[in-house]
Design a protein that fits this description.
With 463 residues, the protein is α+β, with helices and mostly antiparallel strands. The protein contains 9 helices and 23 strands. The chain has 3 domains: 180 residues, Immunoglobulin-like (Sandwich); 104 residues, Orthogonal Bundle (Neutral Protease, domain 2), CATH 1.10.390.10; 131 residues, Neutral Protease Domain 2 (Neutral Protease, domain 2, Orthogonal Bundle).
Length: 463
């Protein structure tokens, strides 16, 4: 008998998203985008499994209309009695009960004008640019452009077909697998072979050209774990030279992170640069998005480039099970800035740690990093104190043992979901193997993760 996948645990930070009734293994999305009207017409094929006996399934969908739903099981068609869209949910009522373990494919035809989703963290999802489209879906904005199970622990593969106006390039996750001209525009197809949650799926549309950032036959620096994955740049003609100048550093960054974390976890990496200014850069599975305002030869810009690249390991390949563990994404990416700074001979990790510690010591001591509450989910203290947590562990274990821990952590959970307890268990195992007492690593990091007060600044590692 085939095992039934475990249902996603309802997330108290986003109680209205996701479902415990259905999981999706693969999405096949076809989207036609009329840029002038900002209107989409889509067809989404969700191949999944029913997780418990149900008569209805609810999917996430925001501000779009559904005209047709066809359901198919392993024995043929499944009757759909009624569908409705209300309160950001597509409700599909069936003609009878579907048993747990039923293989179910939902073929959904939908359309409308995508609207940003308002949230405590700002407006998220599908957004019009001056001349194109940007999708920034973290944490629950995927539903602004396709019906989905919008929960971080539900990881799926994707096939995306996007048709849009001539002269525009839609950039999606993974690998481009096809392109053809049509009478009304152009069509591109993309494949993401590695599973990712829906909030990390994106489409960026602009007058972009794609080209390699560096010679793909160049060997990585000595000591890298594997040959460097291909790096690409999607940018308009006017920003091309400036973008290449600023983002060429990603090749050395990828070598650095591959040495410390293991091989880059996707088929390729693409940096998209919009002609618009953006408040912050954004990451998605296998790509990152920068604004024109991020193209500067300064440490502040360079650290953001490192931060977004590091998310490919921490956040995109290893994804939190629930949003309370956001430090496993942002703390690791912030620490990666410090790591790159040291390895590129800018400033040492200890210098960055001391600076962060001084700043945090002057701020309110009312946040628990390992469970900050939804209102503080993207608080800068999560980033900085999460990085200090890792720095403290590195000081206690030594750089060699610490790097070994991170490589094993990534290798064991690559393209899976993780939580804080799992990381503490892994850290304790590595600490014990290095000769420390049982629970040593947990004792080191617990004050940083679970107490509100600031622990003392760790002494730099002596070994």
């Amino acid at each position: 008998m085939t095992d039934i996948p475990s249902p996603a645990i309802p997330d108290p930070y986003l109680p209205g998203s996701g479902t415990v009734d259905f999981t999706v293994g693969h999405y096949d999305l076809t989207l036609e985008v009329k840029l002038a009207a900002n209107r989409v017409a889509g067809r989404a094929r969700l191949e999944g499994t029913v997780l418990r006996a149900v008569k209805r399934i609810e999917l996430d969908l925001h501000a779009l209309s559904v005209s047709k739903v066809v359901a198919t099981g392993h024995r043929g068609s499944v009757k759909v009695a009624k569908t409705s869209v209300r309160r950001d949910r597509l409700v599909i009522d069936f003609g009878g009960t579907l048993d747990a373990g039923t293989a179910l494919t939902l073929d959904i035809t939908y359309s409308g004008v995508p609207r940003l989703r308002r949230s405590p963290w700002g407006e998220i999802g599908w957004e019009e640019l001056t001349d194109g489209v940007l999708v920034a879906a973290q944490p629950h904005g995927a539903a602004t452009w396709f019906p989905c199970v919008d929960h971080p622990s539900v990881k799926s593969t994707y096939h995306l077909t996007v048709r849009t106006d001539a002269g525009y390039l839609p950039v999606c996750n993974g690998l481009p697998t096809g392109h053809r001209r049509r009478s009304s525009g152009e069509e591109w197809t993309w494949e993401l072979h590695d599973p990712a949650p829906s909030y990390l799926i994106t489409v960026q549309i602009g007058r972009y050209q794609i080209e390699a950032i560096a010679d793909q036959h160049e060997r990585p620096a000595s000591g890298a774990d594997s040959e460097r994955a291909p790096l690409f740049l999607a940018v308009s003609r006017g920003l091309r030279d400036r973008a290449h100048s600023v983002l060429a550093v990603q090749t050395a960054m990828m070598d650095c992170f591959s040495r410390h974390y293991g091989p880059y976890p996707f088929d390729r990496y693409t940096a998209v640069v919009t002609d618009d200014d953006l408040e912050i850069p954004l990451e998605a599975a296998s790509l990152s998005i920068f604004g024109a305002n991020h193209l500067h030869q300064s440490w502040d810009s360079e650290r953001l480039v490192a931060h977004e690249l590091a998310h490919q390991w921490f956040g995109n390949a290893l994804t939190l099970r629930q949003w309370k563990d956001i430090w496993l994404h942002e703390g690791f990416a912030c620490y990666s800035e410090w790591l790159w700074s040291e390895e590129s001979d800018r400033s040492t990790q200890s210098t960055h740690a001391e600076r962060a510690w001084r700043v945090l010591s002057q701020r309110p001591q009312d946040l628990v990093v390992a469970d900050p509450g939804p209102e503080h989910m993207f608080d800068d203290r999560i980033y900085q104190r999460g990085a200090l947590t890792l720095y403290a562990l590195r000081c206690a274990l030594g750089s060699e043992v610490f790097s070994g821990l991170l490589r094993c952590w990534v290798a064991e959970h690559r393209h899976g979901t993780v939580d804080t307890e799992m990381f503490l268990q892994a850290a304790d195992v590595h600490a014990e193997a290095a000769g420390h007492a049982a629970g040593f690593a947990t004792d080191v990091v617990s004050p940083w993760l679970f107490d509100t007060g600031m622990p003392a600044l760790p002494e730099p590692a002596a070994r």
